[in-house]
Design the sequence.
């Protein structure tokens, strides 16, 4: 891909966009829709790509068909590829909100109950630029999504990888993507919590330090007893 001339790549994308009409996309399985979305991800042209435009429209219609990994990929590409005011974005985010509100294990292919804390953090950060755009979506959609993802992050805060904590705390500021979350201050404090592994290592080192003096004391006491026994034998011999 990176070795293809820019003009050739642009022509291919244009041709693909014309060939993959909505009716043809409708006949493709969900996995091929994802491939079409990924293929249209281009730094300079993604927002203007006819292929991405066609795929975005089909994604909205087929949201319930995507498995969790596919839905995450599609959300990332759309959030980073189309304009923040694109009609597909609020529909995708509202779908996530609904799944986070009702999602339970075994409820369907896009089971949010199975989202790991890392995936949840990535989702929040991927869509953060879109959410921060005041004109990107209707206020109610933005508010509902932020409350849903905020609640999930709060409940999973101790499992969020250290690499994402600082970024998420930044989004908890009033001007951040999570700025309208009603428990943003509580979430900010929760994300300051240190992982259990580090605390365990600290306790282990503390126990090691505490154990050292005890060993020395035992050794000193043993030597004193030996000296007493030797003195006792000498006295008995003299007697």
Sequence:
């Amino acid at each position: 891909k990176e070795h293809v001339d820019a003009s050739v790549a642009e022509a291919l994308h244009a041709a693909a966009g014309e060939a993959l009409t909505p009716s043809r996309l409708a006949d493709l399985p969900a996995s091929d829709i994802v491939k079409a979305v990924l293929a249209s991800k281009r730094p300079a042209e993604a927002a203007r790509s006819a292929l991405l435009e066609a795929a975005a429209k089909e994604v909205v219609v087929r949201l319930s068909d995507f498995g969790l990994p596919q839905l995450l990929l599609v959300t990332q590409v759309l959030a980073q590829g189309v304009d923040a005011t694109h009609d597909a974005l609020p529909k995708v985010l509202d779908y996530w909100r609904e799944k986070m509100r009702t999602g339970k294990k075994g409820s369907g292919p896009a089971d949010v109950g199975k989202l790991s804390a890392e995936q949840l953090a990535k989702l929040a950060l991927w869509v953060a630029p879109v959410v921060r755009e005041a004109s990107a979506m209707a206020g109610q959609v933005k508010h509902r999504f932020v409350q849903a993802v905020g609640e999930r992050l709060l409940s999973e805060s101790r499992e969020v990888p250290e690499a994402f904590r600082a970024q998420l705390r930044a989004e908890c500021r009033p001007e951040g993507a999570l700025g309208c979350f009603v428990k943003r201050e509580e979430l900010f404090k929760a994300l300051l919590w240190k992982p259990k592994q580090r605390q365990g290592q600290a306790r282990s080192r503390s126990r090691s330090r505490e154990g050292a003096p005890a060993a020395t004391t035992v050794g000193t006491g043993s030597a004193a007893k030996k000296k007493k026994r030797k003195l006792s034998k000498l006295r008995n011999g003299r007697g």
The longest helix spans residues 196-238. Residues 140 and 173 are 20 Å apart (CA to CA).
